[in-house]
């Protein structure tokens, strides 16, 4: 497992995500989602300013549209070298510039982000145990992912959701009522 963490944290994150989905999952809009918009699957131009395309559709499924946004936010937060909220807000603003989200969807983003990061760390640890010769490649970036989980737990998922809403509503972004 990740050297800075215990199983109990991952189990708590899994329980929290399951609880959120149990309570509001049926009310969240569903659509075709990519669910793997990470730094390896988003193609950008040479100046790193324009998205040219998205690849790797192996995890595509019909799921909660908020989960797709959360996964993209999670990976950008994990690889951020500064403020972890800044990339999350940028991803959310970008998404809202073309598609709306319900306030309830924004409420669940922090827990979904933690869930994706915990899942990635646990699956990475399992894969590294299966192929120890490839551990450094498999576990690359997991410290940043763990930092995202810690950050959201410290701030609190509810407070983070409020911060996200404030950031996008200050610019009258596309949040449904």
UniProtKB/TrEMBL annotation:
GO terms for molecular function: hydroxylysine kinase activity. It is found in: Cytoplasm. It catalyses: (5R)-5-hydroxy-L-lysine + GTP = (5R)-5-phosphooxy-L-lysine + GDP + H(+). Signal peptide: none annotated. It holds the Pfam family APH. Residues 15-95 form the Aminoglycoside phosphotransferase domain. GO terms for cellular component: cytoplasm. Its main location: cytoplasm. Belongs to the aminoglycoside phosphotransferase family. Catalyzes the GTP-dependent phosphorylation of 5-hydroxy-L-lysine. This is Hydroxylysine kinase.
């Amino acid at each position: 497992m990740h050297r800075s963490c215990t199983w109990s944290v991952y189990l708590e994150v899994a329980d929290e995500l399951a609880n959120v989905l149990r309570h509001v999952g049926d009310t969240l809009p569903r659509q075709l989602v990519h669910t793997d918009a990470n730094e390896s699957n988003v193609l950008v131009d040479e100046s790193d300013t324009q998205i040219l395309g998205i690849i790797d559709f192996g995890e595509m499924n019909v799921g909660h549209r908020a989960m797709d946004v959360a996964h993209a936010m999670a990976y950008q937060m994990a690889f951020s070298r500064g403020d972890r909220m800044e990339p999350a807000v940028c991803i959310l603003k970008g998404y809202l510039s073309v598609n709306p989200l319900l306030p309830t969807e924004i409420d669940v983003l922090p827990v979904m982000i933690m869930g994706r990061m915990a899942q990635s760390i646990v699956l990475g640890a399992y894969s590294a145990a299966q192929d120890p010769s490839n551990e450094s490649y498999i576990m690359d970036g997991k410290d940043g992912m763990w930092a995202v989980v810690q950050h959201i737990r410290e701030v609190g998922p509810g407070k983070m959701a409020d911060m996200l809403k404030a950031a996008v509503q200050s610019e009258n972004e596309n949040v449904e009522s």
